[in-house]
Known about the structure:
Elements (H helix, E strand, L loop, with lengths): L1 H14 L4 E5 L7 E7 L4 H17 L10 E8 L7 H4 L5 E5 L7 E7 L1 H5 L4 H18 L1 H5 L5 H20 L3 H5 L6 H4 L18 H16 L4 H14 L7 H9 L3 H7 L18 H4 L1
Helix pairs in contact: 1-2, 2-5, 5-7, 7-10, 10-11, 11-12
Amino acid sequence: MKKIFYFFAFLFITSCSSDEEEIINSDPTEFTFKYNLHTSLPSDWITEFYVIMKNLDDLIPIKPTNYFYELPIYAWNSNVDKPYKDKIGDASGASISGNGGAVNDKYMVLEIPYQEFEFNSMHRYSVIDHEYFHVYQMSLSKNFFDGNIELKWMSEGGAATFESLYIQQHYSYNYFKDAQDRVDISAINNPSIFEKFSTSSSVDSNYSSSVFMFLVLVKELQKKGSTEPEAFKMVLKDYWLRNPTDNNWKTVFLEVFNISVDQFYSSLKGYTNDIKTVLPSESLKLESIF
């Protein structure tokens, strides 16, 4: 059924002449994405969007829960003025937005900067993977869905790492080295600031520092005997399955990784703030992780 749905959705969106279309997967046994893709988007991007969504659904399908079972996606080219303002207000950029922890009251925003189409930026595709992974995190952890845990370097570092792993595998392009190489020395000297957006936004360009910390954790888990895929699974999936909160995340960290947060932060001093020193294997496949 999924293959039929995606193919139908592609035909529908590319054959209509109206300004926008909403494509809905109405199967109640599956998580439902409602696709609102504006005609300002290039047709090749729309085609690739459906390819990426199909690949992600095969890899890490979103399981519906009683608090999260559907998600509208609003995507447009930034060269038009907020075509979905009547539905999402002034929301812009790329995010999973909504009114706090209300049941299923969230939506995905994908405003793609027009320059990314002009210069064929890989980010025009990687942002889809990044935001989809946040949806996956929310389906694993109700506390993450409700906003009861911030832990930026794990949440955003994980999503940004996932997008780079996808780009590396499917486009043979190292997005880590291209877009996540501006690691601030604070990731080594003062890592706790990356637990919150408010204390680290100025030193976390494109989440480079959070990605660095995330990849160091993977390396440290490998030192303790985990294989590379096992280590990535622990940080990308297993941790969120434990549904941590701002109050107990350090306890859950110790239980899942068998290393305390203080021990991990101390281990960062054994590294240099160079993303190239902690890169995953180029042969690593997402299928081996999940």
